[in-house]
């Protein structure tokens, strides 16, 4: 067909292309985030002793959990903005970041003793937490406005700021402590870069976001991330240093299955906030398909996956790869349902996930054997319980509406 006779693009086709372009950009940014996050333990496995590798994985887990309210802040701002338009976000964002870092400092004595970490490590974690959480302000504004190309760039800035210094220190052989210092310093480059990227002349037409909205979103995302990282922390607490180091390699597969379909949830959230139920069904279908593919791949090439994540010393654990991948795939579905519960202002949105997390702690500590397999199967059971409770809760809420 010639250019003269080709029919003009329809609005539907144009919208589809915009969504595809946005999805590709966010997917690339998410892949960069995941790649840098995976690269840290992969390099650590080759540069550090098993004990230091376990300490590194524990620090990554603690920092990730402490920074989760940044994701909650992003979700709350995006939902508020998609529903109501632009509102004031600076004050609540700063307060959220300071509360997160302060909580780490208050808990420092407990964390040092529980996980056998130097006291300076928790201080470095708190230092890196402030800018990481604060990033949620600008990312949420971009997401709520559906400026997905700029959001993708912001996600890349956040990923580079979080991990570049740490990776550089590990590659240079600086040791764990110096690498953590470099990572904390690098994180403070994130806020000014995002402030420039997210600058807009859009006037504030809506009321400022309320603390309750942020608290609901933070509680939900914190519950989900605590549940997905709890097995790693329990492994550090319950297993020998060598066994917990091996377990940390397995969790690389879990996080891969969890975050691989992240783009789906990012694109769907503004539509979920506007009450689009088709967006929820589509998101669950796509995320479920991604999880099924990753589980099948890990079943076929489990030894290769463990070797890629941790080196040749861990390939013998390949038989466990599908279980770690399945845990991550279930939590990816939980993440979609959690976002939907927050977007629709569901009361006690995080309750099902907190219940599953509490169950995991009880089972791993008092019922399951204190072995790699015992913690692993406990984590899979907790993920299955979380998605069951979330799905049941969402079904009940739909019936009430």
Structural overview:
- There is one protein chain.
- By secondary structure, the chain is mainly α.
- The chain has one domain (21-400).
- Helices cover 82% and strands 0% of the residues.
- It has 15 helices and no strands.
- It has helices at residues 11-47, 50-84, 90-115, 119-144, 148-171, 176-187, 190-197, 211-238, 241-259, 262-273, 277-300, 302-310, 321-343, 351-367, 372-400.
- The longest helix is centred in the first third of the chain and has 37 residues, at 11-47.
- The radius of gyration is 21 Å and the shape is globular.
What tags apply to this protein structure?
single chain; mainly alpha; 15 helices; globular
Label the structural class: mainly alpha
Rg calculated over all Cα atoms: 21 Å
Query: What is the β-strand count?
Result: 0
Which descriptor suits the 3D outline? Answer: globular
**Element order: H for helix, E for strand:** HHHHHHHHHHHHHHH
Low-confidence stretches: 1-7
What portion of residues belong to β-strands? under 5%
Domain module count: 1
> For the residues shown, what is the average pLDDT?
86
Oligomer: single chain
How far the N terminus sits from the C terminus, by CA atoms, comes to: 50 Å
Number of helices: 15
Percent of residues in helices comes to over 70%
Major sheet: none
Transmembrane segments: 21-43, 55-80, 92-115, 121-139, 151-172, 178-198, 214-235, 247-270, 282-308, 320-339, 351-368, 374-396
Organism: Asanoa ishikariensis
Keywords: Cell membrane, Membrane, Transmembrane, Transmembrane helix
Membrane topology: Multi-pass membrane protein
């Amino acid at each position: 067909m010639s250019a003269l006779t080709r029919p003009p693009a329809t609005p539907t086709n144009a919208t589809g292309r915009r969504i595809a372009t946005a999805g590709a950009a966010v997917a690339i940014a998410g892949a960069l985030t995941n790649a840098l996050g995976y690269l840290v333990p992969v390099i650590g496995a080759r540069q550090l002793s098993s004990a230091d590798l376990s300490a590194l994985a524990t620090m990554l887990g603690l920092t990730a959990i402490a920074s989760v309210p940044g994701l909650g802040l992003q979700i709350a701002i995006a939902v508020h903005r998609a529903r109501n338009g632009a509102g004031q976000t600076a004050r609540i964002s700063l307060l959220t970041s300071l509360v997160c870092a302060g909580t780490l400092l208050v808990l420092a004595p407990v964390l040092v003793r529980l996980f056998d970490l130097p006291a300076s490590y928790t201080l470095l974690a708190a230092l890196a937490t402030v800018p990481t959480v604060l990033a949620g302000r600008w990312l949420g504004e971009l997401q709520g406005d559906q400026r997905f190309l700029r959001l993708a760039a912001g996600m890349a800035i956040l990923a580079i700021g979080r991990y570049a210094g740490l990776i550089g220190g590990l590659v240079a052989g600086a040791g764990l402590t110096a690498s953590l210092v470099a990572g904390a310093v690098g994180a403070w480059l994130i806020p000014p870069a995002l402030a420039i990227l997210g600058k807009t002349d859009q006037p504030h037409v809506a009321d400022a976001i309320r603390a309750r909205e942020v608290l609901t979103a933070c509680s939900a995302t914190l519950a989900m991330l605590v549940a997905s990282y709890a097995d790693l922390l329990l492994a550090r607490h319950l297993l020998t240093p060598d066994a917990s180091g091996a377990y940390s390699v397995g969790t690389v597969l879990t996080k891969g299955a969890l975050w691989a379909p992240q783009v789906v949830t990012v694109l769907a959230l503004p539509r979920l906030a506007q009450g689009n139920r088709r967006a929820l069904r589509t998101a669950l279908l796509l995320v479920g398909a991604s999880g099924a593919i990753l589980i099948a791949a890990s079943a076929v090439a489990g030894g290769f996956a463990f070797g890629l994540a941790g080196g040749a010393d861990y390939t013998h654990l390949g038989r466990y790869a599908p279980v770690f991948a399945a845990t991550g795939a279930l939590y990816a579905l939980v993440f979609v349902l959690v976002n939907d519960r927050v977007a629709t202002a569901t009361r006690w949105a995080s309750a099902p996930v907190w219940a599953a997390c509490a169950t995991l702690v009880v089972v791993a500590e008092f019922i399951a054997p204190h072995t790699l397999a015992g913690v692993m199967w406990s984590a899979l059971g907790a993920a299955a319980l979380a998605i069951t409770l979330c799905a049941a809760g969402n079904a009940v809420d739909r019936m009430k509406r």
